[in-house]
Structure formats: structure tokens, C-alpha cells
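dumping this here so i dont lose it
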């Protein structure tokens, strides 16, 4: 049987994500709405698809398309970096130094409810770099050493966070409230250990499964942010300063084995090497739309030069409990 997207101009090129050439579309939102079934089918089949030719130019238009494809859109919680909010559920990319990579990760994979579909729109392409790469999380899992996978399946991974005005994101911004009791209730409901410090800062720890199953396909996938949210991705000079000022436990984020044991830089290097071997990339062009299955594919953001305006929306929420987690929550 032919795919519902068989009559569309789809390019499949080695080293690149699936690229759908929409043609010269006058109005992006009506086109996307009319092709919703085909677009979702392409994401199911390829894990990610970049749509070119829509000439997206406004946050409002992107918000409408995102809502039609995967609404209602999710609000972010537990952010690890600042974003600007354009509209309900429509954000800027995470504010991260342009000269540093955002390593491969699955969005909000440290939460109990995360987006099933990530949507990106490029309103302004950088002069160079800035690619949003994607990697097959099932292939990555198969390529990792069996003993490492077994340990993470058995122990899970632990994420430690510090929220304050000096490092990381203030808790008021990350949780969208000025009320400590609201934060405490959220933490209890989401199996997050927490403590307050004397400077109105918040420290948290949460243990999550590093390997899960895709709720639709049943495939086992490497699903976490270990390669990104760890001490070894922080610029060495910045890391040394933060450790000197706040101690080893004062970094804005760090990942450990589920037992709490540190993860060495050799393991992080290995993860990034495996991700690189499986990365598909295509430079952004202004007006592009990209759809990514957040469970089947990890994504990254490469260093760039020049101005880059890529918007993000998250939809199709999925509960961790639906994905055969390997560790039980407390």
C-alpha cells in the first residue's frame, strides 16, 4: 500500500533528515492543516521531517500550525536554560552560548510528562552553523556498549539541579511561580527531591529511566539528557569557577548514574561519539518547519555565527508511565 505521503516531493539523502519540498506555498498554515495526515505519517515513518518552502515568517503563524498539528501545546516546566515566550506554547530556542553546542538530548526527558512531538520554525537562519541535528535513539541504543546500557537500565540516571539567580535558571522562572509551596507540591507530585538554601535558591535531584520503549512502536530507545546536562559540557573555565565558588554540588546541572556515582568524561565522550555517527543534519533556511518525534529521535543545536531565530513548540504529551520505564519511581 502506498504511503499517504507518497505523492509529496520528499527527498531522502544520506546524512540528511527527510526533506519535504512543499513548493511555493503562499499561506503556510492552511497548507499544513490540509496536509496534517501526510506530515504526521512522515514523522511516524522517518522520525523527523524538515518542510521547506512554507516561507514561515511569524510566531503567530508557527503557533497556529503547531496547534493544528499537535495541539493543545505544552507549557515548559523545569527549564534548564532561559527561553523567550512568543505566545502560549511558542518559545524561542533555549538561550545557550552560540559558540557552544547543545549536545544531543530528548526534550524534557527528565520529567514525568514530555512532548511526543517537537516542532521548530526558522524565522532567521544564522550566517553559518546552528544546525538542529537529529539522531535515531533506537540505533544509538544498539550502538552503545551492552554493559553500559545494562547499568543504566538497572540504575537509571540521576539529574541534579541548582536553581538561583547566580547559576542556572531561577526557580521562579523554571516553575512559573513565586510561591514556594507550589514548587514543593510540584516536586512531590513528580518524584523530585528538593531543598532550599539560605539564599532562596533551590536544589533538586530526580532519578529517571535512561532507556524506555516508544509507546507507539514498542522500540527500545536511549532517552535522556545525560550527554548534555553534565559537568563535562560546561566550558572548562566556567566549570572551574563555579566549582570554586559553589563547590562540586553547586553546578547548575549534572548527571550521575542512578546510584549517584559520577559519570566520567570518558562515558560522555563515548555517548557523543555514538551520537555523531548517527547524526543527520541540514542547514536551516528561513521559513523552514521541522517536526521531530521526541522519543524516536534525539536532537541537538550546533554552534553558530550570526543571528539565529528558531522557534520551538511542544505537543502530543506522553507520560513516562506509558513507555515501560526500567526503574520504579519512589
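and the seq i came up w/
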Amino acid at each position: 500500500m502506498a504511503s499517504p505521503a507518497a505523492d509529496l516531493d520528499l527527498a531522502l539523502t544520506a546524512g540528511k533528515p527527510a526533506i519535504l519540498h512543499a513548493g511555493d506555498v503562499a499561506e503556510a498554515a492552511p497548507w499544513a492543516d490540509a496536509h496534517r495526515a501526510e506530515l504526521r505519517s512522515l514523522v511516524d515513518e522517518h522520525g523527523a521531517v524538515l518542510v521547506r518552502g512554507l516561507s514561515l515568517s511569524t510566531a503567530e503563524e508557527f503557533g497556529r500550525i503547531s496547534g493544528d498539528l499537535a495541539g493543545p501545546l505544552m507549557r515548559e516546566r523545569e527549564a534548564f536554560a532561559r527561553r523567550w515566550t512568543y505566545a502560549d506554547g511558542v518559545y524561542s530556542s533555549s538561550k545557550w552560548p552560540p559558540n557552544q553546542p547543545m549536545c544531543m538530548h530528548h526534550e524534557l526527558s527528565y520529567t514525568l510528562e514530555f512532548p511526543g512531538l517537537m516542532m521548530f520554525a526558522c524565522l532567521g537562519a544564522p550566517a553559518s552553523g546552528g544546525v538542529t541535528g537529529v539522531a535515531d535513539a533506537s540505533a544509538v541504543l544498539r550502538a552503545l556498549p551492552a554493559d553500559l546500557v545494562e547499568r543504566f537500565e538497572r540504575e537509571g540516571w540521576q539529574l541534579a539541579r541548582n536553581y538561583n539567580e547566580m547559576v542556572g535558571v531561577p526557580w521562579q522562572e523554571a516553575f512559573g511561580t513565586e510561591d514556594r509551596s507550589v514548587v514543593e507540591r510540584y516536586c512531590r507530585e513528580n518524584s523530585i527531591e528538593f531543598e532550599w538554601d539560605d539564599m532562596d535558591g533551590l536544589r533538586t535531584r530526580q532519578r529517571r529511566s535512561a532507556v524506555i520503549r516508544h509507546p507507539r512502536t514498542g522500540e527500545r530507545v536511549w532517552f535522556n539528557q545525560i550527554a548534555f546536562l553534565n559537568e563535562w559540557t560546561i566550558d572548562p573555565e566556567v566549570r572551574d569557577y563555579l566549582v570554586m565558588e559553589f563547590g562540586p554540588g553547586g553546578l547548575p546541572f549534572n548527571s550521575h548514574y542512578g546510584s549517584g556515582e559520577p559519570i566520567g568524561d570518558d562515558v560522555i565522550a563515548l555517548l557523543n561519539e555514538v551520537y555523531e555517527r548517527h547524526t543527520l543534519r541540514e542547514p536551516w533556511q528561513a521559513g523552514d518547519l521541522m517536526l521531530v518525534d521526541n522519543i524516536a529521535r534525539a536532537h541537538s543545536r550546533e554552534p553558530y555565527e550570526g543571528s539565529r531565530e528558531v522557534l520551538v513548540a511542544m505537543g502530543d504529551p506522553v507520560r513516562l508511565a506509558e513507555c515501560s520505564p526500567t526503574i520504579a519511581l519512589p
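DSSP finds nine helices and 20 strands in the chain.
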